[in-house]
């Protein structure tokens, strides 16, 4: 928020504290990124989950950037005295997919940054690094919205839709309610990369690959049953 505010302060009002040469600014910016990345890699060795200690954590960094407007909105609500509700992630049929309304904070910050760039260009303010900063804000805010649009266009099934696979197996009598709950818990606590619900059901021995394909049209990526290790 402070970065966007300072960017707007110059692009709209022409106010700046310093005007560094482009090469020096780029060197400081890259150095800042390198130090931050090195610090994150150093602290990852203290993660409790083994696969998180081994990975670079790039997806987590991208997710942190993409969710920044959500955390900022929550912080603003807290400072304004509005109570924040504790919400449990919906599972099974209660889960709903993302819509355009999900990314209203992102769109708001993107529109604000576009307005700053437009105002700066109209007022002939030429501090290039702040235009770059505003552009990075726009890209960050529009990334999840673009992902949503591409997912719908290419008919990529979202995570919440994959969770409904459990409801389909339940309706077919292949799973019980308790088995469905166990598999949903396994999906979020199993070590390693994210696993599809159908693959977990096959691996756990609740259904066969043929039953999964017949009921949901989903082909299992697991050729045989393998032990599932849960995070401590």
* Quaternary status: single chain
- Cα-to-Cα separation, first versus last residue: 37 Å
Q: What is the count of distinct domains?
A: 2
Count, helices: 10
Average pLDDT, all residues: 79
Q: Give the CA-based shape.
A: elongated
Amount of helix: 55-70%
Write the layout of secondary structure elements.
Blueprint lengths: L1 H12 L8 H22 L6 H5 L3 H22 L24 H19 L5 H26 L5 H13 L5 H13 L7 H7 L5 H8 L16
Model description:
The protein is mostly helical. The chain has helices at residues 2-13, 22-43, 50-54, 58-79, 104-122, 128-153, 159-171, 177-189, 197-203, 209-216. The longest helix has 26 residues, at 128-153. It has two domains: 2-12 and 24-82 and 100-153, no CATH class; 159-216, no CATH class. It starts with a helix and ends in a 16-residue tail after the last helix.
Task: List the main descriptive attributes of the protein structure presented here.
single chain; 232 residues; mainly alpha; disordered C terminus
Brief synopsis:
The chain has helices at residues 2-13, 22-43, 50-54, 58-79, 104-122, 128-153, 159-171, 177-189, 197-203, 209-216. By secondary structure, it is mainly alpha-helical.
